[in-house]
Hints:
Blueprint: H1 40-54, H2 58-71, H3 76-88, H4 92-105, H5 110-130, H6 135-155, H7 160-172, H8 176-189, H9 201-205
Amino acid sequence: MGEHKKHSCPCGSGKxxxxxxxxxxxxxxxxxxxxxxxxxxxxxxxxxxxGLAQAGKxxxxxxxxxxxxxxxxxxxxxxxxxxxxxxxxGHTDKAWLALKRGHExxxxxxxxxxxxxxxxxxxxxxxxxxxxxSKADIQKMAVEAIGYFNDCLNRHPDYAxxxxxxxxxxxxxxxxxxxxxxxxxxxxxxxxxELPPGWRTEKxxx
Length: 206
């Protein structure tokens, strides 16, 4: 049903550099600090955690990010980073809960919106690939992914990766028109992107 874009952030989280610690575009707002309203202790702890993540020590990074959210549960960036590290260790349910907690703290935080969309899309694809889920269940998860991606695009309308991934979500929801429109936008914004397997070039590029 198509792939979605996930290129590595320099922090080592495994997330796209535009959707993680320092690369998210800020076309409609002032850039977030790496750690929001953080004490010097939190800044140092966050830097250490990012170093562990970059070194591939995701379990150890999880421990430190858990400390960070305990110290400051109102920091969405820490919840976002914790979600990234949970996902990197294969704990996708924990990742989902951490990102949802961050979304409660700041419903407009763009990285969390994008990452929640990706996790929802991953779940949607898995439901489809098992062949055991109903069409209604698959479409329900696709609609959830679309909602998060749309919220992200409302803040960053030229975010190519988000257009690419929401196109896949619309396709899972059997909405070929919107899938084509978003894929077209993604390809225009980033010509280096390629059509995922099974997509018709003439539909996506018209």
